[in-house]
Amino acid sequence: FQKYFPNLKERARHKKRYLLNNLSELNISTFHSLFASFLSTIPFAAGILPGYEIIDETEEGMIFDKIVTEFFAQAWKDDNLAEVIADLLEQQETRLRDSITSFFRDIIPWLDFLEELVNSEQSIKAEYETRRQNFIDSLYRLKNFLEEHQASACSRTTGSVNKYFAGFMTKLERLLKNGDMEMLQDRRIFPGVLDKKYFKSFCDNLGEAAAEFKKIKEQLEADRYKYLEALSDHEILVRLKPILKLHQLFQREKQRRNLITFDDIERYTIRALKNNPELDYLYFKLSKEIRHLMIDEFQDTTYCELEILEPIIAEITSVSPEEKSFFFVGDPYQAVFRWRGGTPVLFDLLIDEYKGKIEEERLTVNHRSKEAIIKLVNRILDKDDQVKPDNRGGWIRLESVGDFTDMDSGKEAVKARTAAIIKDLCENYGYDFSDIAVLVRTNEFGAAVADKLAEENIPYITASRSTILDDTDVQFMLNILRFLDNPEDDLALSKVLLSSVFAIKEETIVNLKATKQTIFLNLSRFHPDWEVSRKLKTLLSFVQFSNIYELIYAVYKELKLTLSYGLATLLDIALDYTRKGVNSLSAFLKWIEGAGRAMEVKHSRQEGVRILTVHKAKGLEFEVVIMPDIEWRLHSQENKKLLFSYEAEGSRPKKIYWRKIGKCIDGLVEAEEVRVKRDELNLLYVALTRAKEGIFILGFNHLKKSDGFWGGIIRDKLGGATFADGEISRKEKRSFPQPEEERFGMITEEKPFVREERSLYSPTERGVEIIESFRRKRIAYGLMVHYALSRITWLDDLNLDEVVGDIVETLKNTYARLPEEEKEVEDKVEPLLLETFQDPELRFLFFQDGRKVDCKNELPIYFEEKNRDVAAQIDRLIIMDTSVFIIDYKTGEEKDEYRHQMEIYKRGIKKIFPKKDIKAFLIFVEKERGKKIVEV
């Protein structure tokens, strides 16, 4: 062989080197990564600075939460914004902050489409008035015609006017008299009523006047349609104002920090390319670097993405395929991202655009799934996929877990059956955990399945995006922290006691709450020997001497909790929080309740059952797929606030309507429902075709409701609630692994984060004092006063009444939920603030009066003292050339501990300003003039 091919090894080495060298030029990336690389070359054209950072959703959520707070602080000063917010309140939007945030999320993806409205405010208002008047004129023509021909509505037997006709005339007169425009939107009145049986009889009796009535009807409907379109534009324009303000604040804050989000990348790239004078050169340079462009999952490509890539595609297709090539592949039946702009329409658009240059090939053979699965897909979704010849076999199981009168019980049974199936497949059929995927429709149900598998000691990896606040173990920990922060919090303690950790019966808790004392006081008094009483007392003893991380760690150790992924993530978060030097448990709880909505549970396991939403499973494959989430009800709304009309099958809307108005236009809601159903059927196709060997589909019968959307379709196509096809294939049997005690958490335990032989002390922390019920309102009142005073920098040249009024409005929106609570804020806080700001002795606190002076509110400090680290938060710090004043606001009477606290503050500030004179003042805001200031 060597004789005839003496250079074969060297030739092979040369070929290998060539392939490896060419492979190194292969660049695999997402669109976001590719566009980010474009953006990095021309950041100034996009309006951003070089060196920008792309932040994840967690950090984005935290910044956005801060901006929403700033937005509300400004909104009440703006009449237009305040009007929209008041309108939301009228619609019983009780959680106003969440409502505005949800509103923002609904509107902002479509802001580019709505820009024309924003830029045409005056013409839209004029158009609205014109269309409104035209419609009212048409209504008067109808009214006059009906009155003139009322005899045609009389009964031939009785001679009296038809009662329904008379009722309609009454409504029409009231509408025109009162201008009740809500009535104009009622589909039961317009246009459908004019097609009712009694109007048909009326029309038959009109004789020659019937033609005129027909014209009036047609004109009325045309004017109504134009009016509704103008009204929709007007409503969107009004409601866009707070969203635009919020968007402006959000973008400004990100620009200040030189940050961008993933959602910004496409928008900034488009802006950069449009604003770049060297656009042709840039695209030439990019195209020169890209010789072969391949796009996978093309059905999810958006118009925006294609717009960015189109010059590159044009450059590639302008030369021979040997020099450059463009390849794109996808499946229109897997188009499940239309809500973010993905559309399979772009297949045909590109083929038409580059006729003769793009060769199309349609694939009909499924190379992944066994025959039984392909037959199932074809039967359920009316498809005609072909089986690969050597891919026979496979198995299907459709099961019902029983009849239930409520959804929760059915879901619990489905989760239990899912865990049992996984164990059976692994113990008796030789499957490994990593062979199995549980595909769910929602992240919420995915998190619930994960909890069940953890309970059954089944290892899992989840890509379901459950936030840390959705995790059961984290919820337990946060409730116990709420109790430790305020031992009078009966709600938090009740949840702790009812949990599986303590398993106290509900009747016992009811008995503990029977007296006027708190649950904890009754536990301590009547059941001091109970384990739960001892544990809670032990944990309370940790509060004053532990930072946040240490406290969570202490709860975990003391209660012998399983270190789940959720708890491990919470410990990581607490560790980062503690490292920032903040040690207020109240502040941490408030922060995590907001920021936690954007934080996901981290999972580190490499092997286990995969739990994914169907959207996340796209492009993946598994030996076995379990589908336990088929009983969800179809929600046919694509957007809570907006309604869309489309041309053909496109994903780019022809027009956007305000939903409340758009639903009154014939055909829009019906077309939306068709689109949503098609999307959900595509999603079902994705779910079924992830399986290679077999599928388990689990459902249940709800005795009081109709079938779920997927469940109903599957049972209808398969002819019943149960179905089986094929034998479950057996693999080489593997032993079921015995789990380690802490297998769902960190492998090693990290020691509490404190310096060696040091403690962390906070003079602003409350200790283990039990707060009696009569003090509850005093604490809330004190918090409001501190918050109000923290809003003040300097009052020079400001109108005190306006300043106090703005603060009181903010307090009512933040703290008050009932009218009597709002009145209480006005009656107590407003006069106290005015008195405080007008007291001559306190003027030096809030007025500069020409002094060269600076101030800091709610200032956190952290310093070392002997063998401990001290963390504190100062209400107000006034800094002058030679001196510093420490200000601490107090409600109620003076206590010795206040002086001790201020002495510590003075020592800490002295370390920061060693050359300045440090003075500390307690300000008792409720005392009479002359007695409010106490110098320490």
UniProtKB/TrEMBL annotation:
Gene3D superfamilies: 3.90.320.10, P-loop containing nucleotide triphosphate hydrolases, PCRA, domain 4. Its EC number is 5.6.2.4. Keywords: ATP-binding, DNA damage, DNA repair, DNA-binding, Exonuclease, Helicase, Hydrolase, Isomerase, Nuclease, Nucleotide-binding. InterPro entries: DNA_helicase_UvrD-like_C, DNA_helicase_UvrD/REP, P-loop_NTPase, PDDEXK-like_dom_sf, PDDEXK_AddAB-type, Restrct_endonuc-II-like, UvrD-like_ATP-bd. It catalyses: ATP + H2O = ADP + phosphate + H(+); Couples ATP hydrolysis with the unwinding of duplex DNA by translocating in the 3'-5' direction. GO terms for molecular function: 3'-5' DNA helicase activity; ATP binding; DNA binding; exonuclease activity. It is an enzyme of class 5 (isomerase). It holds the Pfam family PDDEXK_1. GO terms for cellular component: cytosol. Residues 1-370 form the UvrD-like helicase ATP-binding domain. GO terms for biological process: recombinational repair. Residues 371-619 form the UvrD-like helicase C-terminal domain. This is DNA 3'-5' helicase.
